[in-house]
Amino acid sequence: MKKLFFLILTVLTSFAVQAQKSDDFDPESPVVPYENYFDHETGELCITHCEKDDLSEVMDDLLDRYSIYDVKKIYVACPMSDYDIAYLFRCTNATTIDMRNATEIKKLTNSYMFNSWISSNLEQLYLPNCITEIASNMLGARNLNRIALLAQTPPTIPTDFLNTRINSVEIYVPDEALNAYKSATTWSKMKLLPMSALKESGVQLS
What we know:
Order of helices and strands: HEEHEHEEEEEEHEH
Strand content: 15-25%
Distance between the termini: 47 Å
Shape: globular
Largest sheet: 8 strands, mixed
């Protein structure tokens, strides 16, 4: 009888954890879940426990019989290498890539990641405060409409960064760093907005 009780309890606990994972993860206001997971129904991929350079292996394990093309929303909060980032951008059907809580990312300079075909479905991009350099064609993703950049110091970007979509993408930066971005030669030509405006719309960026 006791064994049956513990078996029932284990099954109920498992269902509760699954339900919590679905409720907890929201790229607009992420709550770090207890474990990595992929929800094939919503296309949500969440990776918070991963060693640097191991992202591809973790993703492959999570996706299992599903494809990278089934991923629609991504939240990553772990150390990332250039290889990890490049692998992440293989999810070409993702509309949101959220790396706000990722660490050890200094440069986002691999221009192919923002190719109009590679990132054709990307609409929202969230970048961490450790970013120091960004590719010249970051605005190349044709459906991109929002970038939230947590870096206090404006990252370095090539002078050829500007393109025809410069006023089509809202770029949110920390309130206290807004003047620094507006004073930076290239950044000043972009559609810069304070992070508080994004938070007021219901997006949490902690």
